[in-house]
Design brief:
The protein is α+β, with helices and mostly antiparallel strands and 277 residues long. 53% of the residues lie in helices and 12% in strands. The chain has helices at 2-19, 26-33, 44-51, 60-74, 104-117, 119-149, 151-162, 174-194, 201-210, 239-247, and strands at residues 36-39, 81-84, 91-98, 216-220, 229-235, 255-258. The longest helix is centred in the middle third of the chain and has 31 residues, at 119-149. The radius of gyration is 21 Å and the shape is globular. One of its GO terms (biological process) is isopentenyl diphosphate biosynthetic process, mevalonate pathway.
Protein backbone atom coordinates (compact mmCIF):
# COMPACT_ATOMS: atom_id res chain seq x y z
CA UNK A 1 0.00 0.00 0.00
CA UNK A 2 1.23 3.44 -0.95
CA UNK A 3 0.58 5.02 2.46
CA UNK A 4 2.98 2.52 4.05
CA UNK A 5 5.82 3.60 1.81
CA UNK A 6 5.26 7.31 2.52
CA UNK A 7 4.83 6.70 6.25
CA UNK A 8 8.11 4.75 6.37
CA UNK A 9 10.00 7.43 4.46
CA UNK A 10 8.63 10.38 6.46
CA UNK A 11 9.36 8.66 9.78
CA UNK A 12 12.88 7.66 8.72
CA UNK A 13 13.58 11.23 7.60
CA UNK A 14 12.41 12.75 10.89
CA UNK A 15 14.39 10.21 12.95
CA UNK A 16 17.52 11.06 10.94
CA UNK A 17 16.91 14.76 11.63
CA UNK A 18 16.44 14.14 15.36
CA UNK A 19 19.48 11.88 15.73
CA UNK A 20 21.63 13.81 13.24
CA UNK A 21 22.64 10.53 11.62
CA UNK A 22 21.12 7.86 9.39
CA UNK A 23 20.35 4.44 10.84
CA UNK A 24 19.44 1.23 9.05
CA UNK A 25 15.69 1.91 9.07
CA UNK A 26 14.95 -1.72 9.91
CA UNK A 27 12.98 -0.91 13.07
CA UNK A 28 10.64 1.46 11.26
CA UNK A 29 10.24 -0.85 8.25
CA UNK A 30 9.27 -3.86 10.37
CA UNK A 31 6.86 -1.77 12.44
CA UNK A 32 5.16 -0.66 9.22
CA UNK A 33 5.31 -3.88 7.18
CA UNK A 34 5.56 -6.63 9.80
CA UNK A 35 7.94 -9.57 9.38
CA UNK A 36 10.08 -8.92 6.29
CA UNK A 37 13.41 -9.48 4.58
CA UNK A 38 14.86 -5.98 4.45
CA UNK A 39 17.47 -4.23 2.31
CA UNK A 40 18.18 -0.73 3.56
CA UNK A 41 18.00 2.50 1.58
CA UNK A 42 21.02 4.55 0.58
CA UNK A 43 22.00 6.99 3.40
CA UNK A 44 22.71 9.73 0.87
CA UNK A 45 18.95 10.18 0.34
CA UNK A 46 18.43 11.68 3.80
CA UNK A 47 21.88 13.00 4.65
CA UNK A 48 21.04 16.58 3.64
CA UNK A 49 18.06 16.76 6.01
CA UNK A 50 20.23 17.12 9.10
CA UNK A 51 23.34 18.44 7.36
CA UNK A 52 21.62 21.61 6.10
CA UNK A 53 20.76 22.73 9.66
CA UNK A 54 17.35 24.15 8.78
CA UNK A 55 16.32 24.83 12.36
CA UNK A 56 19.34 26.83 13.51
CA UNK A 57 17.54 29.96 12.30
CA UNK A 58 13.88 29.50 13.28
CA UNK A 59 12.26 31.96 10.90
CA UNK A 60 9.16 31.33 8.78
CA UNK A 61 11.40 31.30 5.71
CA UNK A 62 13.73 28.58 6.97
CA UNK A 63 10.80 26.54 8.32
CA UNK A 64 9.13 26.61 4.91
CA UNK A 65 12.46 25.72 3.29
CA UNK A 66 12.67 22.68 5.57
CA UNK A 67 9.14 21.56 4.72
CA UNK A 68 9.87 21.94 0.99
CA UNK A 69 13.14 20.04 1.34
CA UNK A 70 11.56 17.25 3.41
CA UNK A 71 8.84 16.91 0.78
CA UNK A 72 11.44 16.57 -1.98
CA UNK A 73 13.30 13.93 0.03
CA UNK A 74 10.11 11.94 0.68
CA UNK A 75 9.20 12.08 -3.01
CA UNK A 76 12.68 11.02 -4.19
CA UNK A 77 13.73 7.48 -5.08
CA UNK A 78 14.68 5.61 -1.88
CA UNK A 79 15.58 2.22 -3.33
CA UNK A 80 14.91 0.23 -0.18
CA UNK A 81 13.55 -3.27 -0.72
CA UNK A 82 11.44 -5.52 1.45
CA UNK A 83 9.78 -8.87 0.98
CA UNK A 84 7.16 -10.60 3.13
CA UNK A 85 8.67 -13.32 5.29
CA UNK A 86 7.65 -15.59 8.13
CA UNK A 87 8.96 -18.20 10.53
CA UNK A 88 8.43 -21.92 9.92
CA UNK A 89 5.09 -23.20 11.28
CA UNK A 90 5.33 -24.25 14.92
CA UNK A 91 8.40 -22.08 15.62
CA UNK A 92 8.07 -18.98 17.78
CA UNK A 93 10.24 -15.96 18.41
CA UNK A 94 11.00 -15.59 22.14
CA UNK A 95 12.55 -12.41 23.51
CA UNK A 96 14.28 -12.15 26.87
CA UNK A 97 14.61 -8.72 28.48
CA UNK A 98 17.74 -8.43 30.61
CA UNK A 99 18.14 -6.20 33.64
CA UNK A 100 20.86 -3.81 32.66
CA UNK A 101 21.28 -2.30 29.24
CA UNK A 102 23.64 -0.71 26.74
CA UNK A 103 23.96 2.66 25.04
CA UNK A 104 23.32 1.91 21.38
CA UNK A 105 24.86 5.16 20.01
CA UNK A 106 28.18 4.35 21.72
CA UNK A 107 28.19 0.81 20.32
CA UNK A 108 27.41 2.07 16.83
CA UNK A 109 30.03 4.82 16.96
CA UNK A 110 32.75 2.30 17.85
CA UNK A 111 31.79 0.10 14.91
CA UNK A 112 31.65 3.03 12.47
CA UNK A 113 35.05 4.28 13.65
CA UNK A 114 36.59 0.84 13.12
CA UNK A 115 34.99 0.53 9.67
CA UNK A 116 36.34 3.93 8.63
CA UNK A 117 39.85 3.04 9.80
CA UNK A 118 39.84 -0.54 8.45
CA UNK A 119 37.80 -0.53 5.22
CA UNK A 120 39.25 -3.71 3.70
CA UNK A 121 39.01 -5.80 6.88
CA UNK A 122 35.51 -4.51 7.62
CA UNK A 123 34.28 -5.25 4.09
CA UNK A 124 35.54 -8.83 4.39
CA UNK A 125 33.91 -9.40 7.77
CA UNK A 126 30.63 -7.78 6.75
CA UNK A 127 30.54 -9.88 3.58
CA UNK A 128 30.86 -13.04 5.69
CA UNK A 129 28.12 -11.84 8.02
CA UNK A 130 25.84 -10.97 5.11
CA UNK A 131 26.38 -14.41 3.59
CA UNK A 132 25.59 -16.06 6.94
CA UNK A 133 22.39 -14.03 7.18
CA UNK A 134 21.43 -15.05 3.65
CA UNK A 135 22.01 -18.71 4.49
CA UNK A 136 19.82 -18.30 7.58
CA UNK A 137 17.00 -16.99 5.39
CA UNK A 138 17.43 -19.94 3.02
CA UNK A 139 17.24 -22.37 5.95
CA UNK A 140 13.92 -20.89 7.00
CA UNK A 141 12.61 -20.93 3.42
CA UNK A 142 13.58 -24.60 3.03
CA UNK A 143 11.62 -25.50 6.18
CA UNK A 144 8.56 -23.63 4.98
CA UNK A 145 8.88 -25.48 1.68
CA UNK A 146 9.10 -28.83 3.50
CA UNK A 147 5.95 -27.95 5.42
CA UNK A 148 4.04 -27.11 2.23
CA UNK A 149 5.19 -30.27 0.42
CA UNK A 150 5.20 -32.88 3.18
CA UNK A 151 3.39 -31.84 6.35
CA UNK A 152 3.65 -35.29 7.92
CA UNK A 153 7.45 -35.36 7.71
CA UNK A 154 7.63 -31.75 8.87
CA UNK A 155 5.47 -32.46 11.94
CA UNK A 156 7.57 -35.54 12.76
CA UNK A 157 10.78 -33.54 12.92
CA UNK A 158 9.10 -30.63 14.70
CA UNK A 159 7.90 -33.01 17.40
CA UNK A 160 11.44 -34.47 17.69
CA UNK A 161 12.80 -30.94 18.05
CA UNK A 162 10.45 -30.30 20.97
CA UNK A 163 12.30 -32.93 23.01
CA UNK A 164 15.86 -32.40 21.68
CA UNK A 165 18.78 -30.51 23.22
CA UNK A 166 20.91 -29.81 21.38
CA UNK A 167 19.21 -30.19 18.00
CA UNK A 168 20.23 -33.42 16.25
CA UNK A 169 22.29 -32.90 13.09
CA UNK A 170 19.98 -35.15 11.05
CA UNK A 171 16.97 -32.99 11.96
CA UNK A 172 16.05 -30.57 9.11
CA UNK A 173 15.71 -27.83 11.75
CA UNK A 174 19.43 -28.14 12.51
CA UNK A 175 20.14 -25.85 9.55
CA UNK A 176 18.80 -22.91 11.56
CA UNK A 177 20.94 -23.84 14.58
CA UNK A 178 24.00 -24.06 12.35
CA UNK A 179 23.30 -20.64 10.81
CA UNK A 180 22.87 -19.09 14.26
CA UNK A 181 26.27 -20.53 15.22
CA UNK A 182 27.93 -18.98 12.17
CA UNK A 183 26.25 -15.59 12.59
CA UNK A 184 27.24 -15.44 16.24
CA UNK A 185 30.83 -16.36 15.39
CA UNK A 186 31.13 -13.31 13.14
CA UNK A 187 29.35 -11.06 15.66
CA UNK A 188 31.86 -12.10 18.32
CA UNK A 189 34.66 -11.38 15.88
CA UNK A 190 33.13 -7.95 15.27
CA UNK A 191 32.98 -7.47 19.04
CA UNK A 192 36.67 -8.27 19.33
CA UNK A 193 37.96 -6.02 16.54
CA UNK A 194 35.75 -3.00 17.25
CA UNK A 195 35.67 -3.02 21.06
CA UNK A 196 31.89 -2.64 20.85
CA UNK A 197 30.10 -5.18 23.05
CA UNK A 198 27.87 -6.62 20.32
CA UNK A 199 27.93 -10.12 21.80
CA UNK A 200 29.77 -9.71 25.13
CA UNK A 201 30.93 -12.81 27.02
CA UNK A 202 27.98 -12.66 29.44
CA UNK A 203 25.55 -12.86 26.52
CA UNK A 204 27.56 -15.65 24.94
CA UNK A 205 27.16 -17.75 28.09
CA UNK A 206 23.45 -17.00 28.21
CA UNK A 207 22.82 -17.92 24.57
CA UNK A 208 24.90 -21.09 24.91
CA UNK A 209 22.85 -22.05 27.96
CA UNK A 210 19.62 -21.64 25.98
CA UNK A 211 20.71 -24.21 23.40
CA UNK A 212 21.02 -26.86 26.14
CA UNK A 213 17.25 -26.67 26.76
CA UNK A 214 14.88 -28.80 24.70
CA UNK A 215 13.22 -27.15 21.72
CA UNK A 216 15.57 -24.18 21.36
CA UNK A 217 17.10 -23.69 17.91
CA UNK A 218 19.40 -20.91 19.09
CA UNK A 219 19.38 -17.14 19.01
CA UNK A 220 21.32 -13.90 18.95
CA UNK A 221 21.70 -10.61 20.77
CA UNK A 222 19.23 -8.45 18.81
CA UNK A 223 19.63 -4.96 17.37
CA UNK A 224 22.99 -3.32 17.86
CA UNK A 225 23.93 -5.89 20.50
CA UNK A 226 24.92 -5.28 24.09
CA UNK A 227 23.27 -6.27 27.35
CA UNK A 228 19.63 -5.31 26.69
CA UNK A 229 18.13 -8.58 25.48
CA UNK A 230 18.42 -11.93 23.75
CA UNK A 231 16.09 -13.35 21.12
CA UNK A 232 15.54 -17.03 20.41
CA UNK A 233 13.67 -19.34 18.07
CA UNK A 234 11.94 -22.15 19.98
CA UNK A 235 9.47 -24.88 19.07
CA UNK A 236 6.12 -23.48 20.19
CA UNK A 237 5.15 -26.60 22.17
CA UNK A 238 8.44 -26.44 24.08
CA UNK A 239 8.11 -22.82 25.24
CA UNK A 240 6.24 -23.48 28.54
CA UNK A 241 8.80 -26.07 29.68
CA UNK A 242 11.67 -23.87 28.43
CA UNK A 243 10.49 -20.92 30.53
CA UNK A 244 9.87 -23.16 33.53
CA UNK A 245 13.39 -24.61 33.39
CA UNK A 246 15.00 -21.17 33.25
CA UNK A 247 13.16 -20.12 36.43
CA UNK A 248 15.24 -22.54 38.49
CA UNK A 249 18.51 -21.80 36.66
CA UNK A 250 20.61 -19.03 38.24
CA UNK A 251 22.11 -18.19 34.84
CA UNK A 252 18.73 -16.71 33.87
CA UNK A 253 18.16 -14.72 37.07
CA UNK A 254 18.34 -11.38 35.23
CA UNK A 255 16.14 -12.48 32.31
CA UNK A 256 12.43 -11.71 31.98
CA UNK A 257 10.68 -13.49 29.11
CA UNK A 258 8.42 -11.18 27.14
CA UNK A 259 5.01 -12.13 25.82
CA UNK A 260 5.22 -11.27 22.14
CA UNK A 261 4.80 -12.88 18.75
CA UNK A 262 5.77 -12.41 15.13
CA UNK A 263 3.48 -10.00 13.28
CA UNK A 264 3.08 -10.47 9.53
CA UNK A 265 0.97 -7.41 8.76
CA UNK A 266 2.32 -4.28 10.46
CA UNK A 267 0.27 -1.13 9.88
CA UNK A 268 -3.20 -1.53 8.45
CA UNK A 269 -5.88 0.84 7.29
CA UNK A 270 -9.05 0.72 9.36
CA UNK A 271 -12.39 2.49 9.49
CA UNK A 272 -12.52 4.86 12.52
CA UNK A 273 -16.28 4.29 12.69
CA UNK A 274 -15.56 0.72 13.80
CA UNK A 275 -14.33 2.09 17.13
CA UNK A 276 -17.31 4.29 17.95
CA UNK A 277 -18.94 3.52 21.29
Amino acid sequence: MKYKIRFTIVLRSLIALHRKKVGSGFDVATAVYGSIIYNRFSPRVVNKIYQDRFFEDKTPTTKKAFVDHLTSVVDSKWEFRHAAWGLPPGIRLVMGDIKGGSETPKLVSKVLKWRAENPKESDELYSKLEEANSQFILSVVSLRLLHSQDKETYQYWLEKLTHEAPVAKNNPFYGITERFTTIRKYLRELTKVTGAEIEPPEQTKLLDACTTIEGCLGGVVPGAGGYDAICLLIAEKAIPSFVEKTKSDSRFAAVSWLRLHEETEGLRSEDPNSYEI
